[in-house]
Amino acid sequence: MKIKFALIKKLLIYLCFCLQVFASSDAALAKVIKIEFTEFDTYSSEIIHINVGDTVEWLPTNEGHNVEFIMTPIMVSSPEKSKMNEPHSVIFQEAGIYVYGCTPHLNTGMLGLIVVGNDFHNIEDINEIKLSPVANSVLKRLAKKAKSQIKSN
């Protein structure tokens, strides 16, 4: 009987330890960030800085918009393009820069930039994206602003 009690006590201590480790892990601290489609053909947040494991949700508060990824870290395949006027969410598991836009408004500059894990290793890939002059200008502004935000934090 004493052996069983000692074993149960050790298992409970181990279980408490495991729960404590999980509670302090990134999985338990993951956030959900919400971005809306605005009436001005923009996203409510053009630049966000998140951690690996965080989720971004796009909400169709205005019609005629979607989310299409046009650049991701090299090791990551692009998340699926969302359907028009429907909510969309992505859990970001890889650090780096992600660029997305609204398919019908891409060339007018409806773009967003996500920095995951404060990792800018693929920022130069932005120069390879083929966009209209307007969208290209917007993207360069977003990249410059994202870098400056990290320095000021």
- In the CATH hierarchy, the third-tier topology of the largest domain is known as Immunoglobulin-like
Number of strands: 7
Rounded mean pLDDT score: 86
- Poorly predicted regions are 14-26
Q: What spatial form do the alpha-carbon principal axes imply?
A: globular
Which strand order spans the largest sheet, edge to edge or round the barrel?
2-7-6-4
At CATH level 2, the architecture of the largest domain is Sandwich
- C-alpha-based Rg, rounded: 21 Å
Kindly report how far apart the N and C termini lie.
57 Å
- What percentage of residues falls in helices of 4 or more residues? 25-40%
Largest sheet: 4 strands, mixed
Number of domains: 2
Strand content: 15-25%
CATH class membership of the largest domain: Mainly Beta
Helix-strand makeup class: alpha/beta
